[in-house]
UniProtKB/TrEMBL annotation:
Residues 1-110 form the CarD-like/TRCF RNAP-interacting domain. It comes from the Bacteria. GO terms for biological process: rRNA transcription. Transmembrane segments: none annotated. This is CarD-like/TRCF RNAP-interacting domain-containing protein. It comes from Candidatus Gemmiger excrementipullorum.
Amino acid sequence: MFQVGDAVSYGANGVCTIEEKTTVRLTGRPCECFILRPVYDHSMKICVPCQSQVLLDRMHPLPTRQELLDLLREPAPEHEPDREARKELYRRTLQSGDRHALLRMLRDLYAERCHRHAQGKQLSGFEDSALREAQTILHSEFAYAWGITPQEVPDLIARELGRAAEA
């Protein structure tokens, strides 16, 4: 179980610190909750009720630097050609919080964006939104693991993907 002071990944909010475990009133009843603060957005606080397994399941321990590198070095995924199937896959991936699936999705969307830009086209609104949400989650995890800002992560990923291609 998680403890006060732990850093966790929480849904689309990315890396958060557990600030406290306290009792608050929700729907008129006392409820024990974890209070999370996103590491890269100090203006927000998140209350996660301890009795809500659905919300607790969104909290994940952070990966190590090596685990993230291993994920980056996996072969690129196959692109799902069916638009509706791809949309459903992206939706499920974002809900799951599974960083392995998120990174595969992110790599697929990066490749698709490059492919479409070469044709003078853009990603669909849904794909662009899915890309930004996946970036928020993964970039915060990479930034936290390397001690850099989320804005520096794309260059880090590009370097590491370049090293993987050279190997």
